[in-house]
Amino acid sequence: MATKRSATAAYVCSECGWTTAKWVGRCGECQQWNTVVEASAPAGGSRRVAPLVPTSSARPITSIDTSETPRRASGVGEFDRVLGGGIVPGAAILLSGEPGVGKSTLLLEVAAQSAREGRRVLYVSAEESPAQVRLRAERTSALHDELYLASETDLARVLGHIDEISPALVIVDSVQTVSSSLSDGAAGMPGQVREVASTLIRVAKERDLPVILVGHVTKDGQVAGPRVLEHLVDVVCHFEGDRQTSLRFLRALKNRFGAADEVGCFQMAGDGIVGVPDPSALFLSHGEPEPGTCVAIALEGRRALPVEVQALTIPTSATNPRRVVNGMDASRVAMVLAVLERRAGIRTSELDVYVSTVGGVRFTEPAADLAIAIAVAGSVRNHAIARNVAAVGELSLAGEVRPVTQGAQRRAEAARLGYTRVVDDRSGKLTSALNDIRALHLVSRDAGFPEF
């Protein structure tokens, strides 16, 4: 005879702690399979927790010291910028990114610069041998006597290295390749990742020792392992870039010590990785203005960047004209083409249209709509826009130019870079924006846009 299940029985995910009233094969929180197990309540009802004397008394929030948390500059300016000004003692930082994007190269540069500042650094490479790391360090000029290397995959031995060396910074590359004897399963399993990360974070807090953990990512770009890993750490950064270009971006997705929308810009070179404090020139072409180009002001985090949008239109007799888009949202480009034809009288239905950005940067926000429209109109009319013109605005289906986020910051950055005229939502309509360019003699060729 089957026994009746207790009314107090519940089911809990062994990876993230998610609970449910009935058994399911897949956790509803971390999406892991076969991790939901039965967890019955203790016999005799719930237990009561006895109160203890607090270690420190609660204080009014107005009496809390508001002095800034001490930070240590790593020596890599763009890395410090993303962290909010430097590395905070005791901080746990998680750095994720696609394979081969340059995570190890970036952290090796951070380790070398910190060692040059007089701080001892322990670099734990669980994926490469010390000789392999040494070869990369020679190529990138990241050699220093205060930079210690260890190749370990066992958590206990990593802790032993920390006790022996007493470093001021620890880098573990990567957290998915280190395992602990206190947890079952192979390295990289959710239970192992959680145990390793929680132990290293506890050591970081107890010793005021900053720890940087490298995390692998899955096919959809998420950090591999349990979601609780991103909740445990203080800072989550994502290193991204296109393998076809040398440009790399470091984004802060979570930061308990600063802004969570900051972006750092790097450039990969043959001798290592270099920070780019002012990447404005990377996304602009050089030479005389050409028909079909317009500069837009993009916003990467809190950093405004000029991005040149290029358009090329070619007559075609095909039933379905081609629409080729690179670095931009193809659906938004299609919408802009429809608005141009319906509201501004610029026919594109009989043209092959190619739209791209310069420098391989992705510009997918609505603020690019007006620049796309001006670039396509310039290509159709064979008119080149002057170099001192920039465009920022979102287009509605009614042909209105709508304001965008951080419009004042974009205009200020445009003025700093020498763009004396910014075409934006103050024009009201797309036709007005095109006629503003003509009326102000901002077109570099003799003819202007026709009246609308």
UniProtKB/TrEMBL annotation:
Coiled coil: none annotated. A motif (RadA KNRFG motif) lies at residues 254-258. Residues 68-217 form the RecA family profile domain. One of its GO terms (biological process) is recombinational repair. ATP binds at G97, E98, P99, G100, V101, G102, K103, S104. One of its GO terms (cellular component) is cytosol. CDD domains: RadA_SMS_N. PROSITE patterns: RECA_2. Keywords: ATP-binding, DNA damage, DNA repair, DNA-binding, Hydrolase, Metal-binding, Nucleotide-binding, Stress response, Zinc, Zinc-finger. Residues 44-75 are annotated as: Disordered. It comes from the Bacteria. It holds the Pfam family AAA_25. One of its GO terms (molecular function) is hydrolase activity. Residues 54-67 have a biased composition (Polar residues). Residues 352-452 are annotated as: Lon-protease-like. Belongs to the RecA family. RadA subfamily. The middle region has homology to RecA with ATPase motifs including the RadA KNRFG motif, while the C-terminus is homologous to Lon protease. Plays a role in repairing double-strand DNA breaks, probably involving stabilizing or processing branched DNA or blocked replication forks. This is DNA repair protein RadA. The gene is radA.
